[in-house]
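ok so i was messing around last nite and threw this chain in just to see what happens. nothing serious, just curious
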Amino acid sequence: MWTTKLKLMHEDCHIVPRCKKFNVTSYAYPTGSYIEKGHHHVTGVHFLEGEEKNKKAFLRDLKRDKRIKQIEIYGDIYTYELDLGKKGEHVQLYYTPQIIFMKPVINSPEGFYQRIRGAHEFLPDVIHNSNKKIGHSFSIDFPRTSRKAKGRN
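result:
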């Protein structure tokens, strides 16, 4: 298994610019992606951190985004469905079930960070596809291999 730390930035991000604008941090776990009627959709659960007035302003602004089709808010936790349209791109579209999120994705005023773990044959594809199709700027701490425990095959 390889462990990779990615720092990503893409122009059409729906979270990081709001984190910057409202001075909050949003910790996320991506929950899925699918295609319905030709539209790409991604879903996720987020945990907000920051001053109360800033968090409320962030959520009000996010609700106004026409790409957000569903949003549920429970205090500092929110879940949503984002409609990317027919040609929309998002790094989440390139995740595979073999990827493990070691920590929440961090969306902050400084950018988008994630630490993922997966077999060496899957991680390069995620990195390559999201960079080629979405145009992320990357900072990569890659690779680090895990060691097998003694007595295991």
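not much to say yet. The chain has three helices and nine strands.
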